[in-house]
TrEMBL record:
Recorded GO CC terms: plasma membrane
A single MF term (Gene Ontology): xenobiotic transmembrane transporter activity
Domain of life: Bacteria
Keyword Cell membrane: yes
The organism's taxonomic lineage, starting at the top: Bacteria, Pseudomonadati, Bacteroidota, Flavobacteriia, Flavobacteriales
Listed InterPro entries: MATE_fam, MATE_MdtK, MdtK-like
Membrane topology, as annotated: Multi-pass membrane protein
Transmembrane domains' residue ranges: 14-35, 47-65, 86-113, 133-154, 166-185, 197-217, 237-258, 270-291, 320-343, 349-373, 385-404, 410-432
Protein name, per record: Multidrug-efflux transporter
UniProt cross-references to Pfam families, sorted A to Z: MatE
Length: 443
């Protein structure tokens, strides 16, 4: 494979659309947080509820959407070895699996919504708001998970532009409908508060799915004709997805623990934590655009057994990811105090937010390295290593650090110091493993 495959132009041809597509989902949540946090009725409780539900939704979607990454990895490797015909029956089977699994997830979580959010230490009005908001948002599971599976096909085919168009359109629809449905339009549309935000998100997800299906049928060599002869690649895909399920479950256990502790500290703390976490996730998805490029190109290079280019790819994407992280840090440093005001006007919440936000910013270059190598390792099919690393990082690093710091009364600092240590061990271990396993092949 020529070095042009890992040129600045080719990497950014995949990364920039992937960044825009990736930030659409957290942008939907950030829009909800910003608009809900400024409603006239119980803004702190509404913000806290939206933050808790947003974290839980992200957790579930990240876990069950790992088939997207598995699909992307398998399609890109078969593209690199010129054997796309071998996965033509696999794609509809994988999409069908995502759809059926999403129905199960919806049925179980919607029924136990009260118990789920009680486990986050939500109570009273916050719990009522969270349950009402979730019951509507959860309907979108099948829409989102089918869309993500199709996005995995696009990325495997080295195209992130189609997903970008779908995601950007969905985000714009969500922003517009948020204003209309949350605040209402006098004499025309009643103000619907949190429920309005949930309905806006649901409509945006439906728009993204419709667009994704159009690109799938018009632009790819695949179809949705379901064959009952199981594709031999399906077991490998589900095994990889299963390892990534466990990995992502460990990741989201850390996020759950953080939100549960913040809720226990008080409503001002969980409101501030909701803003911090959603900004952190926004940064993660933004930087993840280069991880997606690494995922797509890395799988293709592995399929072609081009280890020299694979090593070059890791170096180039590392530089670009860290640069993006530094730019984001700089922008947020310039508007440090103004950023909190976008999401809430309560002084008690803003003081907590400002006191910890610098720590969230400081960890971004470390996050960039971790996310970038995550993406490359997924493209290489290294799901087992990623699973084991997250289990170690979460249960032997994040959790003990959080418990120790909480014992000393650090509260929000305890949460973000634990996240800092968590990301540091992840990034270090990934760099070490990549050098150990793939640098010797390049040589």
């Amino acid at each position: 494979m020529s070095s042009s495959a890992i040129s600045f132009k080719n990497i950014n041809k995949l990364a920039i659309p992937a960044i825009i597509a990736g930030i659409a989902e957290p942008l939907i949540s950030l829009t909800d947080i910003a608009i809900i946090g400024n409603v006239d009725t119980n803004p702190i409780e509404a913000l806290a509820a939206a933050g808790i539900v947003g974290s839980f939704l992200s957790a579930i979607i990240w876990i069950v959407a790992q088939t997207k990454t598995a699909i992307s990895s398998i399609v890109s490797r078969h593209l690199g070895s010129n054997r796309l015909h071998a996965v033509k029956t696999l794609i509809p089977q994988a999409i069908a699996f995502n759809f059926l699994f999403s129905l199960v997830i919806y049925a179980v979580t919607a029924f136990f919504a009260n118990s789920i959010f009680s486990a986050y230490n939500a109570e009273g009005l916050i719990l009522n708001y969270a349950e009402d908001y979730y019951q509507i948002r959860a309907i979108g599971y099948p829409l989102t998970l089918v869309t993500f599976a199709i996005f995995g096909v696009f990325r495997g085919l080295q195209n992130t532009l189609w997903a970008m168009k779908c995601s950007l359109t969905g985000a714009l629809v969500n922003v517009g409908l948020d204003y209309l449905l949350v605040y209402g339009v006098e004499d025309y549309i009643p103000a619907m508060h949190l429920k309005g935000a949930a309905i806006a998100s649901l409509i945006a997800q439906a728009v993204m799915l419709i667009m994704a299906l159009w690109f799938f049928f018009k632009k790819t060599p695949f179809n949705l004709k379901l064959s009952f002869n199981i594709n031999p690649q399906l077991n490998g895909l589900l095994l990889m997805a299963g390892n990534l399920f466990i990995r992502t479950a460990a990741l989201n256990f850390a996020i759950y623990l953080a939100n549960a502790y913040a809720t226990d500290y008080g409503k001002n703390y969980i409101a501030a934590q909701s803003i911090l976490m959603n900004i952190w996730l926004f940064f993660a998805f933004f930087i993840d655009g280069y991880a997606n490029a690494g995922n797509a190109i890395g799988g293709k290079l592995l399929g072609a057994k081009d280890y020299v280019s694979l090593w070059e790819l890791s170096k180039k994407i590392s530089k670009y990811s860290v640069l993006i992280a530094l730019i984001l840090m700089g922008i947020c440093a310039l508007f440090y105090n103004e950023i909190g005001l976008i999401f809430n006007k309560e002084a008690s919440v803003l003081v907590l937010f400002s006191s910890v936000f610098w720590l969230v910013l400081l960890m971004q270059p470390i996050n960039a390295i971790a996310f970038m190598f995550d993406g490359i390792f997924k493209g290489l099919g290294e799901a087992k290593y990623l699973r084991n690393l997250l289990l170690v990082a979460t249960f032997l690093v994040f959790t003990p650090v959080l418990l120790i710091c909480d014992y000393f009364g650090l509260k929000l600092y305890a949460i973000w110091i634990a996240f800092f240590a968590w990301m540091l061990i992840r990034s270090s271990a990934l760099v070490f493993q990549f050098r150990r396993k793939y640098l010797k092949k390049e040589i």
